[in-house]
Structures are given as C-alpha cells and as structure tokens.
Automatic annotation (TrEMBL):
<keyword id="KW-1003">Cell membrane</keyword>
<keyword id="KW-0677">Repeat</keyword>
<dbReference type="Pfam" id="PF08266">
    <property type="entry name" value="Cadherin_2"/>
</dbReference>
<dbReference type="Pfam" id="PF16492">
    <property type="entry name" value="Cadherin_C_2"/>
</dbReference>
<dbReference type="GO" id="GO:0005886">
    <property type="term" value="C:plasma membrane"/>
</dbReference>
<keyword id="KW-0130">Cell adhesion</keyword>
<feature type="signal peptide">
    <location>
        <begin position="1"/>
        <end position="35"/>
    </location>
</feature>
<keyword id="KW-0472">Membrane</keyword>
<dbReference type="InterPro" id="IPR002126">
    <property type="entry name" value="Cadherin-like_dom"/>
</dbReference>
<dbReference type="InterPro" id="IPR013164">
    <property type="entry name" value="Cadherin_N"/>
</dbReference>
<dbReference type="InterPro" id="IPR015919">
    <property type="entry name" value="Cadherin-like_sf"/>
</dbReference>
<dbReference type="Pfam" id="PF00028">
    <property type="entry name" value="Cadherin"/>
</dbReference>
<keyword id="KW-0732">Signal</keyword>
<feature type="domain" description="Cadherin">
    <location>
        <begin position="82"/>
        <end position="140"/>
    </location>
</feature>
<protein>
    <recommendedName>
        <fullName>Protocadherin gamma-C3</fullName>
    </recommendedName>
</protein>
<dbReference type="InterPro" id="IPR050174">
    <property type="entry name" value="Protocadherin/Cadherin-CA"/>
</dbReference>
<feature type="domain" description="Cadherin">
    <location>
        <begin position="250"/>
        <end position="354"/>
    </location>
</feature>
Length: 753
C-alpha cells in the first residue's frame, strides 16, 4: 500500500523547447527550481532494496532520458538512504529503515530527497514518510516499583507510578494500563496540560499494617498495535506507620535555561523540599520519576542535596528542551513531586557542511561567461544567525557563486578563460555562518581548462637565410625552420610545407613536414641560380587548422669581409657579411690625418678564395678642405714593413713591363686564358653605391674623407682613384685609364696592387 501525491509547483509545459528552457529558468529562480514535488509513504523495517516508487512513471519521463540526463537521487544529510535505477526508473531503499532510529522523539518521520537531471539542469523535490509499525513493546523504567503508604492514608489518596515508554507512535504507541485484581487499589490515568500521560494508583480501601504489611500488584502497559504488545512491572506496596506531614517543594515547577555546550558536572538547578516531621519522618531524599531515559542520561540528581547536574553532552539540534519530575520522599514514605523544565540554548557549535551535487572537472577555454561548473548545497545544523550561512571564493579567479534555492549555489565562470595563461584552477569555496564566533568550512574544487585551437603557429624568424655550395650532393640537408604553437595536444602539432606559387617554377628543394629540415633535391649551379626564395608554411593540427608563413632564402655563395690592415685598427670596422665600413669610435685630433685601410673579402669554397681593396681616408674639418687636400696634397707614405717592399717590387715590375711591350702582350693573353679556366672569384662592386651583382679588378683604391668627431658615418667618395695599368697594356673589361694614376700611385707608395 504505497501512497503517492504529485503537486504542481509552477509553470505549465510547452511543446516549444526554447519556451521550456525559459520556463525552467524562471522556475529555478522563483519556484526553487523544482517543477514537481513527489510524496511517498513507506513502512519502516522493510528489507534492503525495497521498492519505494517508479520515478520515471510518476514523472512521465521516458527511461532513455534517465541515463541520458544523468538522473540521480540525493538525500538530505550525509547519509544517502535511497537508490535510483536509471535503467528501470525505480526508487528503492538502500537499507532497512528504522523510524525510531532515524526520527527519535518525533511523531512523524519524513525523509527529504531530491532528484537531479542534467542537460538541462532540473531538480525535483521528493518526500518519503516512514510509517511506524508496531515493532516495540512498552517498557517500564523499573521492573519493580516500591511504594511506602501510611496505614492512615484515606481512601481516594493517589500515588504516582512510573509510566511505561513505547518508542512507537500513533496507534502503535502506548494506549492503556491495567492492574491485577486486588481489594485495595485501582488505576487512574490522565493527560497533563503539556500532553504527557501520567499514571496514578488510587487507594479504594483503608490499609491495615497489622492485617497485611505488604501487597504485590502486577501493572501491565499495552499498545494499540495489531497484534498488541505489552510490558509489565511489579508494584510492591509497603504499609508503614502513620506520618502526618508530607514533604513540600519550594516551587511546583523549576524552569532553567542552559547552553548546549555546558560542561559535564555543571550545576543546572537545586530542588528543595522540607518536612516538619522529626527523625526519619522529616528526612527527605530525592529521585527522578516519570522522566525519560534520555533525560536520565543527560542529567544526574543528588539524592541527598537535590542538585541536578549535567551528566552528558547536550545538543540543541537533537532536543531543544528536557522535562523531568523529581520526587521528594521522607523517612515515613510520604512524597511530593515537582517539575523541572530545562530549555537548551543554541550555540554556534556546528560548522557549515558543503555537499557537492554536480561537478564538471573540465571545461573548454572558449566556454562563455556564466557557464555552470558545479552545483552544491550548504547546510548548518545550528539555528538563527548561527545557522545562517554565506559562501565565497578565495583568490582573484574568473569564477563566481550564484545562490539558487534551498541553500544551493552554482559555481559559474564570470570571465573569458585562456588555457595558455592558466591551464587549471584549484578553487577553494569557503562557507561561513553568521554566529558571534563565526565557524567556516572549505571545499576544494579542481577544474581543468581544455585546449581550443586559438593560437596559430609562430616561426622563430620571419626570414631564414641558408647557404649551400654549388654542385651539391642530392638530398642535402642545408638547415631547418622552426615554428611553435602555444596550444596543446594536436592543436600544437605543427606540420611544415612549401607554399606553391602559381606561375613560378617550384625550386628543387623540400621541407620535412614534421621536423622542418630543409633539403636540396638536386645539384645547384651558381652561374644559373645564384639565390632564390620560397615561402614555408606551418599549420597546426586543429580543426580548422591555423597557419603562419616565413620566407626561406637560399644563396649559393657566402662572402665574409674583414679588415686586414689599418693605420688606426680601432678607428674603423667592417660588416662581416655586408662589407659596410663604419667608424668604430669618435674621430679625435690625435688621429692621423691620412688613414689607409685594406679590406679582405673571402668566400667559403674548397679551397677558399679571396680578394682585397684599399681605402684611403682623409680626416678633415670640412669637405672643402678635404677636396683641397685630395687635389693638391700628396699623401705621405708610411712605413708598412713588408707591405712597402711588396709595393716597391710591384713598381719595378711595372717599369719592366713598359720596356717589354711585346712580352706584356703575351703575358696579357696568357693571363686572360688562365682566368677563363679558373673558378669565379669574389669581387668588390664597381662603385660604392652599386649592388654586389657587378665585379671590379681584384685591387682598387678608394679615397675617403671624414670630419673630426665623426661616429658611425658612411663614407662620401669625393673622387675615385682608378687603378694604374702598365704602359702598353690596355685596361681590362670594365676598367678605365686615369691620367693621375702615376701620381696617385707614387703618392700612395704603390698602393694600386
């Protein structure tokens, strides 16, 4: 006999999916997110995995949706009492449920659970009432109760008895008492103003100690179960001599307020009763009567002094008040009663409890703001401000908390994410109550940011320059290109390829798609192709892929320049590959007015070949003075050691050539034939402003002037000094004969070589 109710909470269903989503969000914000409340009833002590309800049928949800939307059941509190089968939609009890254990001291026992659906998020509240079954018999606190009654007691006198306790409730709880047949006493029951049932023994006939000094009665308590259960106790009546005064309490009711964190042995209250009789008839002793077993565990009563002290740990969340009855009995057996009511005051002794309901451990970096990452609830067992809680996130993180309903919170993103900047987050959620002494608890949530292909590859250089010698071997590796991608996984996997250009012949080279190594496929000929450029692309493995390009420049010759000789070695420097001559420091008055530089250019062939050029530099105050010096002054020769000897020897050879024109002609023919057979030599440009594509004789003299204080200045060539040729010999191709050759050569000490 299960009982089921369904209550509509808010909204109505719509066939339009978008409208359903909007209605769902409104219900979350306004109606505590649940569209329906399910109520069921289940008797206690059912077997494990007992059937509770068919959730799929009651909600009208297809079975396929339960697994697809990850339907699950969550009970309130730390212990999960129910299980939902996603395949059948059946809700079952995980264990046998004992109502007296789950809901002690409560007439009704209702368990709250929630059913969660995802995609979209939906929460349905459910209740299961645990119905009581008659599984407990009434029990008296003592198997034998002893009453001492004066023989002078008049008929109609009433004597309280200990009540029986039954853990069951309702009809299964304690219903009535019965007393065994006897000629002196009857039984009376009643209900106090606070709803507690009491039991009294009523004297019907006067006692006579001399006739019968002791009576034994059987007291039976019966519940209303089917079949009924019962419990018994013996009541022993001791007839005593007359005692004409009974104890009297100072108060009929003692009311005490006590904090729940009161320590053991703390004084609660001191009850006091007086008896004007003398001797043993006036001596009063105290004892609990008609008091629950739990109250007897929490409080202890001193039989002599009447002091009640704390004996156990009080818990406001378990019971907010305790009621006790104290009996004061004198030596003659007369007694009186008073009530003690203890109100337990709540203190902030429970930290908030954070319970995760749903968690997404990995989200993509392109997730939009306000994406839900986790759903959790916060519960504090305290009351008032002590049970009021607030939540926060530690640190400056792109996440925020949004309260939803019934102490539930959503953890959402509040900013754009970037995996390349932060790949993972350790989020610490702190829940704090509002107590005077604030208590808090924390929950750590670890969230990983998954990669999205949002970064293209980047080459380490925009232009790569590689060199190779002509007549190279096939499949020669000449270098490599390198590109990196800030993404991860396949999004960072880079593949290289040559970009084909329409209308242009593809060069004989290739690039390894994985390593970026560059290979020349066939031998090259410098005279045909001195250099060429291609475009290399790097594409990642994303979908769609992102790419970047770089220029790959390949030359067949690699020239290097150096300063072979200088008047002031530290004044000038030569670019290693550009051949540009610049000042290395400021020109000072102490530097020689005439400077001579010999520049050497060398290729990297096997064997290496080289050539030289001489620069004459004049240091002047202005260009007018420089022009005057070049036109009118002859540079003073400086001793150059072996170099001077070589120049003198050259002049001797030139003089000899003037005398032997015929021999010179033969020499010229032989020299031209020899040059045509030898390899191409590196040459200097025709003029200082032309590109390196032309050629000059192997030796050339430049006249350059600088002003004092010049730093890193480019040369201004005022007047070129053409090379001198021996008499009778014509100038070579591209060469000119100068009328001032002999004078310049003489002034420079034979620097024409």
């Amino acid at each position: 006999g299960w009982i089921f109710w369904r209550e509509k909470a808010c909204g109505r269903r719509s066939g339009d999916r978008k409208r359903q989503v909007i209605l769902f969000i409104l219900c979350v914000c306004v109606c505590q997110s649940g569209a329906e409340t399910l109520r069921y009833s289940l008797p206690e002590e059912m077997e494990k995995d007992s059937f509770v309800a068919n959730i799929a049928k009651d909600l009208g949800v297809p079975l396929s949706q339960l697994a697809a939307r990850k339907a699950r059941v969550v009970s309130e509190g730390s212990e999960q009492l129910f299980r939902l089968n996603q395949n059948t939609g059946v809700l079952t009890a995980k264990e046998s449920l004992d109502r007296e254990e789950i809901c002690p001291q409560s007439d009704t026992c209702t368990l709250i659970f929630k059913i969660f659906f995802e995609n979209p998020l939906q929460l349905i509240r459910g209740e299961v009432e645990i119905r009581d079954v008659n599984d407990n018999s009434p029990v008296f606190p003592e198997k034998e109760m002893v009453l001492e009654i004066l023989e002078t007691a008049s008929p109609g006198s009433r004597f309280p008895l200990e009540s029986a306790q039954d853990k069951d409730v309702g009809i299964n709880g304690l219903q009535n008492y019965s007393l065994g047949p006897n000629p002196h006493f009857s039984l009376a029951t009643g209900t106090a103003k606070d709803g507690v049932k009491y039991l009294e023994l009523v004297l019907q006939r006067q006692l006579d100690r001399e006739e019968q000094g002791e009576l034994n009665l059987l007291l039976t308590a019966t519940d209303g179960g089917s079949p009924p259960r019962s419990g018994t106790a013996q009541v022993r009546i001791v007839v005593v001599d007359a005692n004409d005064n009974i104890p009297v309490f100072e108060r009929e009711t003692y009311e005490v307020r006590l904090a729940e964190n009161s320590p053991v042995e703390q004084l609660v209250v001191r009850v006091a009763a007086t008896d004007p009789d003398e001797g043993s008839n006036g001596k009063v002793r105290y004892a609990f009567t008609q008091t629950s077993e739990r109250a007897r565990q929490l409080f202890q009563l001193n039989a002599s002094t009447g002091e009640i002290r704390v004996a156990g740990k009080l818990d406001f969340e378990e019971a907010k008040s305790h009621k006790m009855v104290v009996k004061a009995t004198d030596g003659g057996g007369l007694s009186a009663h008073c009530k003690v009511q203890v109100e337990v005051l709540d203190v902030n002794d429970n930290a908030p409890d954070i319970a995760l309901t749903s968690l997404t451990t990995s989200i993509p970096e392109d997730a939009p703001p306000r994406t839900v990452v986790a759903l959790f609830s916060v519960r504090d067992r305290d009351s008032g401000d002590n049970g009021r809680t607030e939540c926060s996130i530690d640190g400056d993180l792109p996440f925020s908390l949004t309260p939803t309903f019934d102490n539930y919170y959503e953890l959402r993103t509040n900013a754009a994410l970037d995996r390349e900047r932060t790949a993972e987050y350790n989020i610490t959620i702190t829940a704090t109550d509002w107590g005077r002494k604030r208590l808090s608890s924390q929950e750590n949530i670890f969230v990983q940011i998954s990669d999205v292909n949002d970064n293209p590859p980047e080459f380490t250089q925009e232009v790569y320059t590689l060199s190779v010698t002509e007549n190279n071997s096939p499949m020669l590796r000449i270098g490599s290109v390198k590109a990196t991608d800030a993404d991860a996984g396949k999004n960072a996997r880079v593949n290289y390829a040559l970009v084909r250009q329409e209308g242009k012949e593809q060069p004989e080279m290739s690039v390894n798609s994985e390593t970026g190594d560059v290979y020349i496929l066939r031998p090259l000929d410098y005279e045909k192709v001195p250099s060429f450029e291609v475009t290399v692309s790097a594409a990642d493995g994303g979908s769609p892929p992102l790419s970047a390009q770089a220029v790959l420049r390949v030359v067949n010759a690699w020239l290097s320049y150096e300063l072979a000789k200088a008047t002031e070695p530290g004044l000038f420097r030569v670019g290693l590959h550009s051949g540009e001559v610049r000042t290395a420091r400021a020109v000072s008055e102490r530097d020689a007015a005439r400077q001579r530089l010999i520049v050497l250019v060398r290729d990297h062939g096997q064997p290496a070949r080289s050539a030289t050029a001489t620069l004459a530099v004049a240091l002047v105050d202005g260009f007018s003075e420089a022009h005057l010096r070049v036109s009118e002054e002859a540079p003073a020769a400086e001793p150059d050691g072996p170099l001077t000897l070589y120049l003198i020897a050259s002049l001797v050879c030139v003089s000899a050539l003037f005398l032997a024109t015929a021999v010179a002609a033969v020499v010229v023919k032989v020299r031209r034939a020899w040059r045509s057979e030898t390899d191409t030599l590196p040459t200097f440009p025709t003029t200082a402003t032309e590109s390196t594509a032309g050629s000059l004789p192997r030796s050339y003299v430049y006249d350059v002037c600088f002003a004092a204080g010049t730093v890193n200045s480019e040369f201004r060539f005022l007047r070129p000094l053409f090379p001198c040729f021996p008499a009778g010999l014509p100038p070579g191709p591209g060469q000119q004969r100068s009328s001032v050759c002999s004078q310049d050569a003489a002034n420079l000490g034979g620097e024409g070589d």
